[in-house]
Hints:
98 residues; mainly alpha; 4 helices
Amino acid sequence: MTADPLDTSIARLNEIYDKSIDTDDCKTALATQKELNKLHNLYKREKPIESNLNALKLKQELDAIAEHLRPLELAADEYPLSEVARIAAEMIRKGVDG
């Protein structure tokens, strides 16, 4: 079985980091840690506050869509909003094409 390239890279970088720390080579240790952080996607992670704000914005957007579509009674209330939107889109397409 072939080793995963990402796992191999991380293992090699960890070895370099350990040797750098043992020899007090802070410059190499720091550069290695930065590369490990990139491989672990630490720089792209959202902060919890940003993530909560994004979730709130998405919920507000979905609520606004529901306010427009639900009164049209295109489907029963228990249907998910995505299905109501699909039905509305289908009706619009038929109206445009028909």
